[in-house]
Amino acid sequence: MSGARMEMVKKAYEKLDVNKDGCVRLDDIAKIYDASCHPDVVSGKKEEGDLYMEFMSLWDTQVKDGIVTWDEFLGYYKDISCSTESDAEFYNVMQKAWKLEQ
Questions:
Q1: Residue 29 three-state SS
Q2: CA–CA gap between residue 101 and residue 94 (Å, rounded)
Q3: Cα(91)–Cα(44) distance, rounded to whole angstroms?
Q4: Are 26 and 66 in contact (CB under 8 A)?
């Protein structure tokens, strides 16, 4: 993952870390994540609610404690980065999903 993409992921994680304690809780993700802009929802392949539930099930993978660590978050976006060709597309996905400022 390029440094620029890593910075975008870090920006999203920091936004989710509302308590600024280095931990992101599943509740924090649920409050901010916007599934309506996901390509599968836009194309009609999946319903927004179904995609949201799938997405939420991806987190909290290392220890089932309701906390998403930086490593879990970064690991997920490393996979997404590999399947996203352009930086512009990656940034667009991140900005829409996490309501990040441009």
A1: helix
A2: 10
A3: 22
A4: yes
Q: How many CB atoms lie within 10 A of CB 40?
A: 14
3-state SS, residue 42? helix
What sign has the CA pseudo-torsion 78, 84, 87, 89? negative
> Tokens 């400022």 appear where?
101
Residues 6+ apart with CB under 8 A from 11: 94, 100
Sign of CA dihedral 15, 21, 26, 28: negative
CA 44 to chain centre: 20
Structure confidence by residue, pLDDT tens digits, 33-88: 888 878 888 899 999 888 888 887 877 666 677 888 888 889 889 988 998 889 99
> Which pLDDT does position 44 carry in this prediction?
93
By three-state DSSP, how is residue 24 classified? strand
The predicted pLDDT at position 21 comes to: 86
Global confidence as pTM: 0.78
